[in-house]
Design a protein that fits this description.
311 residues; alpha+beta; 7% strand; LINE-1 retrotransposable element ORF2 protein
């Protein structure tokens, strides 16, 4: 039975939470409670001059240690030769279509301003791009437009103003993202089929293993238990600063070789990293394009998940 308070400007009162309506309201309250715990308001406008933005870019780019070789950690034995071989054939039309069909139409485009929607709506244009990708694959030559990114800034907290309160998000041209999505999918399949990744502990970033959902469900269950039993609960969030970007370029090269990735794929990835360029932009100004250190590119690629998982 429901007891409703229908007086003006009154919230809905439900006396019997055993009804479907009461249960629905209870679920909505739980969702709002979870959002209030886990979501923080983020807004603001970056206030930085062109000179300040240039100085910040210089501090973020460049890597004096990129040529320092990294040897084996020693305690990690190299896995056996793969039973399932890496697919090194040029991208197939079905693979390209699958990537484009699954891509979000609302995804922001890169410097060339071409969104996914163009390739979703114009299959003949996509077919021309596919033929270009086949040439790039065979020649190991990555078009320069695929190696350029523009970094925009998203506030990390409320009333953000200075650059330390913003997170940089690099926007790549979608053509390169489509191409390397195929490489990433093949690399993930190769690593999983050869059991090079232990999915019992490594879940995040691996398709079919909802690690983030599992972890969130565990935290939510603990919060609900503490609330129900009126007990204390301390939740500690550990966020690795620049987790992707902190991985040295030489470590990526080592990992690719360590897991028996074919030389042609290693060369493809290396050529991409070595020619990468990025600029920084705000509402008022945009910096010049500058060579990016390879570790700054790690979080920008569709390759990031399988590469980071293998490390």
């Amino acid at each position: 039975m429901l007891a409703l308070d229908l007086r003006p400007n009154r919230h809905l009162h439900i006396a019997g939470l055993t009804s479907p309506y009461g249960q629905l309201l209870q679920m909505e309250k739980k969702e709002l409670f979870a959002k209030s715990l886990l979501e923080e308001k983020k807004n603001g406008k970056l206030e930085a001059t062109a000179q300040e933005l240039e100085e910040y870019m210089k501090s973020q780019l460049g890597d004096h240690e990129k040529n320092i070789p990294l040897g084996s950690p020693g305690h990690v034995p190299r896995p056996a030769e793969p039973e399932s071989q890496f697919d090194t054939t040029p991208p197939r039309w079905a693979e390209i279509r699958q990537v484009v069909d699954k891509a979000r139409s609302a995804s922001a485009p890169g410097l060339n301003g071409v969104p996914y929607r163009v390739y979703k709506s114009c299959p003949m244009v996509l077919k021309l791009l596919w033929k270009l990708m086949i040439v790039a694959w065979k020649t190991q030559a990555i078009p320069s437009e695929w190696t350029k990114a523009v970094t925009t800034f998203i506030p990390k907290e409320q009333d953000s103003r200075n650059i330390s309160q913003f997170r940089g998000i690099a926007l790549l041209n979608v053509e390169g993202k489509i191409f390397f999505s195929v490489v990433a999918k093949r690399m993930t399949r190769y690593l999983l089929e050869n059991s090079y990744i232990d999915t019992s502990c490594q879940k995040a970033g691996i398709p079919g293993f909802p690690g983030c959902v599992e972890h969130s469900a565990m935290i939510w269950d603990q919060i609900q238990t503490a609330k129900r039993e009126k007990s204390d609960l301390h939740v500690v969030w550990l966020d690795l600063e620049n987790a992707y970007g902190s991985v040295p370029h030489q470590l990526i090269n080592f990992a690719l070789d360590f897991f028996h990735i074919p030389t042609c794929i290693q060369s493809l990835v290396s050529n991409y990293f070595s020619s990468f360029q990025v600029c920084y932009t705000t509402q008022e100004t945009t910096t010049r394009l500058a060579p990016a250190r390879e570790r700054d590119c790690n979080g920008l690629l569709n390759l990031a998940n399988p590469l980071f998982s293998s490390l």
